[in-house]
Design goal:
CATH superfamily of the largest domain: Type I PLP-dependent aspartate aminotransferase-like (Major domain)
Mean pLDDT: 97
Number of helices: 14
Shape: globular
Oligomer: single chain
Strand order of the largest sheet: 4-12-11-10-7-5-6
CATH topology of the largest domain: Aspartate Aminotransferase, domain 2
Strand content: 15-25%
CATH class of the largest domain: Alpha Beta
CATH architecture of the largest domain: 3-Layer(aba) Sandwich
Number of strands: 17
Low-confidence stretches: none
Bound molecules: pyridoxal-5'-phosphate
Number of domains: 2
């Protein structure tokens, strides 16, 4: 008989009762170091007092009123995001990453339609991308596994190899509205785009009058050590999507636009009942209080570099298991040799007391809360070292001893 909770996930047999900072406790009192952060989402860790208080106070005052009325918490959060994001002029709030990407793709299509080019509705996407699970976003994702059985893909998404500028130029047609890219592919294997490639995309977009749309759902809100990962490339996109870390674990998504893109979504063109409600935006404002506090992002960058060096040492120590380390900021990937799977290493991590997340291309994704300390990184490295030893093929293990 089917479980009452739909079995559409492969869940580990673990359930957590309580969390504090980077730590989680299960019902048996076992403690885990959470270096998955609920898939790069619990950016302030668990039970952050400022976020908890903001949510509790707003919940008691008023949770939801709908977008029939003004929402001061959303106005404030939008103004702060615009202020902190150089290219941005206006923000639309929704509830998840897929929904933010839907809004972003609707905006870029509407932009061209509003400028007399309704035929420009196609978006160039990249192999290995992940943009979410709605009908349109599985088409933007393009992975055959996610499309299977759901009928014809939604029209208007063209896929080309990640990082290949010749392919980009060949794919641009009179129907191209936008290029959509993750600055670091998350689900696809923690694969960063070359900063030069991002700059060349910007130039190609300018040359052909198309829009640069960045999916910053996983990379944004400080995870890279800057507020947005694209800022490392020194470019300005036309529109970006955000979700995951933006609510620190409370469901919230955003489409952050330049004026020329944002102005086309006039009343009646797009919307969401929950989107940007007082409670979600109180959470968003509390997260922003922490992330924009002086020195916070610099500290994320410093801890990330410390972690990176430690992972390189681990890779050097376990050459029969690890083939490389990749990523940016606190979105890091341990790439494994073909003989060992990322799910084996992930399970070995659980056995040692550390939570991580598998990603594509046999990469183990490590995405801790942004508030971790160097001491917690040291502990993570110690646990990962033991997990790596667990999955080391026995011959290599004997040789290493
Ligand atoms: C997680 C993710 C999404 C989808 O977000 P949901 O909140 O699960 O809908 C989209 N894009 C990227 C880059 C993601 O990492």
């Amino acid at each position: 008989m089917i479980p009452a909770l739909m079995p559409n996930y492969n869940r580990a047999d673990l359930a957590f009762e309580r969390g504090e900072g980077a730590w989680l406790w299960d019902a048996q009192g076992r403690r885990f170091l959470d270096f998955g952060a609920g898939i790069a989402t619990s950016s302030l860790g668990h039970g952050h007092p400022h976020l908890v208080q903001a949510i509790a106070e707003q919940a008691a005052r008023v949770m939801h009123t709908s977008n029939l009325y003004r929402v001061p918490q959303a106005e404030r959060l939008a103004a702060r995001l615009v202020e902190a994001t150089p290219f941005a002029d206006t923000v639309y709030f929704c509830n998840s990453g897929a929904e933010a990407n839907e809004g972003m793709v609707k905006a870029v299509r509407k932009y061209h339609a509003a400028h007399g080019h309704p035929e420009r509705f196609r978006t160039i996407c990249f192999d290995g991308a992940f943009h979410g699970r709605t009908l349109a976003m599985i088409s933007a994702t393009g992975n055959a596994k996610y499309l299977e059985g759901f009928g014809p893909p939604v029209e208007g998404f063209d896929h080309i190899p990640f990082g290949n500028m010749n392919a980009v130029r060949q794919a641009i047609t009179k129907e191209t509205a936008a290029i959509l890219i993750e600055p670091v592919q998350g689900e696809g294997g923690v694969r960063p785009a070359d900063l030069r490639f991002l700059r060349e995309l910007r130039a190609a977009c300018d040359e052909f009058g198309i829009l640069l749309a960045l999916d910053e759902v996983q990379t944004g809100m400080g995870r890279s050590g800057k507020l947005w990962a694209y800022q490392w490339a020194g470019i300005e996109p036309d529109v970006i999507s955000s979700a995951k870390g933006i609510g620190g674990g409370f469901p919230l998504g955003a489409v952050i636009c330049s004026e020329r893109v944002g102005e086309v979504l006039k009343p009646g063109t797009h919307g969401s009942t929950y989107g940007g409600n007082p409670l979600a935006c109180a959470a968003g404002n509390a997260v922003l209080d922490v992330i924009l506090a002086p020195g916070f992002l610099e500290r994320v960058d410093r801890v990330a570099r410390y972690f990176w060096r430690g992972l390189l040492d681990l890779a050097a120590k376990h050459p029969t298991v690890v083939s490389g380390v990749q990523g940016a900021g606190l979105l890091l990937g341990i790439k494994l040799v073909p003989e060992v799977t990322n799910s084996e290493l992930q399970a070995a991590g659980v056995a040692e007391g550390i939570l991580t997340v598998a990603a594509g291309m046999n990469v183990l994704r490590v995405a801790p809360p942004l508030v971790i300390t160097e001491a917690e990184v040291d502990e993570a490295l110690r646990l990962l070292d033991r997990a790596l030893l667990r999955v080391t093929p026995s011959q290599a293990k004997a040789a290493a001893k």
